[in-house]
Design goal:
alpha/beta; six-stranded mixed beta sheet; 9 helices; 25% strand; globular
Amino acid sequence: MGKLVIDFKGVDICQKDLQVLNGVDFSMSKGQFMYLIGRVGSGKSSLIKTITGEIPIHRGNATVLDFSLNGLKSRDIPSLRRKVGVVFQDFQLLTDRSVYDNLAFVLKATGWINRDEIRARIEEVLSMVGLSGKNDAMPYRLSGGEQQRVAIARAMLNDPDIILADEPTGNLDPDTSANIMSIIHGLSQTFGITVLMATHNYNILRSFPSEILKCEDGRLMKTVMPSEEDLKNKLIKFGLSRGYEYELVYQTVMKMYGPQF
């Protein structure tokens, strides 16, 4: 295992007065890719916010890069976040500014001054995500996949050591999701960036296999990808629990997994 860039030991994570996760123990090394799964409200986003310093920790010990999260001072948070890129499900682009201006805004806010260096860096990250020539495009004229590529480029601007992707394919169709996943997965393989990605998409877990963390019942644990048979049974059980007719549920699952089911 290489150098640890995230290291949590016995950490309790709280949202206001509510404890969301307790006794969190996990670590990630440079260039490692891991998935984070769990139901809505299980603590995935809270864990990501803890890594970025948005949620303070009150019990346990945690280190991200060279920053101790125990008593992390407000003045140190911007330095931490320059080394941790975040990709959101809903893109969070400034809709009244061009792609170039969206990215330039981030660079200027993080201390970049030289115009030539800003332009060169923007062109570099746009090329990395396959959007060369889109500098002047407005976000609302881009497809969902293209907007997410801009969001990934934005996360890459300050050459981060860590990328946290919070449901980055949640608003995208399957083909576009696969393209976005190729980019995100490649960040760890090609550039040695540590990537933690929250997702509900089991097709992605099958297509791009990697280690999996699961938030469940207030705990964070390692898990494995369930078999297709387990997934089929869970889907049928879920559909029936919602009052759908068995035939409808069966046909839906068969379309997803093929006639061999």
